[in-house]
Design a protein that fits this description.
Oligomer: single chain
Number of strands: 8
Helix content: 40-55%
Structural class: alpha+beta
């Protein structure tokens, strides 16, 4: 790319001897992945697309939805030690050692999970499915829930933690239900989910809304809050720290820019704890 740019600049030289030295092959724009690279921006876009399409980078595709969630990666923070900073970045970029990564380096390595013999040993499996990390996985969810609960109380909301709501198909337990008398007459129902990296966060968000936006939940919310309107939403974060844009819109006025970064970082930190468990 740099050589191509230098040669193109030499074309405008008034010295005929220089034009004789220029090889026409050097004037052709470089090609990466069957795409012609003509500018620095196009080069960045091509490598970004290749990263998004890779096994390690597919979860990073959705980090652009809420970019302020990643301020911790470029600004100093007292939350992280130097070691933790390195570890959470290794987790974020899918670089922690797993059976899958060993197999990519050496085909003789065992690719399967030592606890789940028929499942590939990947970070996604360890953090989301494997029974060995079930305890830390629950703790990760609870810590995120506790953080949001604290912020709601600071904002003056009345909060109900994990109400048990009887429905025709059993009980539903949204994580939080909150309202404020000074606000417009609305009570919000919130459920929190830490999801896989191979699905757009908007998809599990809509699944949560569909699950809890039912008549029995709406009736219960109106009764306990003495308000008339109900808004059902979710806080969706994938295990690589990406946050759903819909979650940001739903929690506007509760979670600020710094808090989004803390939520993403806490998810990654507890992911490292689950990996080490």
């Amino acid at each position: 790319m740099l050589k191509h740019q230098r040669m193109c600049r030499l074309i405008g030289a008034n010295d005929s001897r220089i034009s004789l030295l220029i090889d026409q092959r050097d004037l052709a724009a470089p090609v990466i992945g069957r795409k012609t690279v003509s500018t620095s921006d196009s080069l960045v876009n091509i490598w970004r697309e290749k990263l998004d399409a890779s096994v390690d980078g597919k979860g990073l595709l959705y980090h652009r939805d809420v970019p302020e969630a990643h301020r911790w990666a470029r600004e100093p923070t007292r939350i992280l030690t130097e070691r933790d900073f390195v570890r959470v970045n290794h987790l974020r970029y899918n670089l922690l050692l797993t059976g899958q990564l060993k197999f990519r380096m050496c085909r003789q390595a065992n690719i399967f999970c030592p606890v789940c013999p028929n499942r590939p040993h990947t970070l996604g499996h360890i953090l989301q499915v494997c029974p060995r990390s079930h305890g830390p996985r629950i703790q990760r969810h609870n810590k995120i829930c506790e953080f949001v609960h604290k912020k709601l109380l600071e904002k003056g909301f009345e909060v109900l933690w994990e109400p048990h709501i009887k429905t025709g198909r059993g009980f539903l337990k949204p994580d939080l239900m909150y309202w404020k008398k000074e606000d417009p007459d609305i009570v919000r129902v919130l459920d929190i989910g830490i999801t896989a990296d191979n699905v757009r966060p908007a998809v599990p968000y809509q699944e949560k809304v569909k699950k809890y936006d039912v008549d029995s939940v709406r009736k219960f919310a109106c009764e306990v809050s003495a308000l008339d309107s109900v808004w059902v939403g979710a806080l969706i974060i994938n295990w690589q720290g990406a946050i759903a844009q819909d979650s940001k819109n739903f929690m506007k006025g509760v979670i600020n820019t710094r808090d989004w970064a803390i939520l993403s970082l806490r998810t990654l930190q507890h992911g490292v704890y689950s990996y080490d468990f």
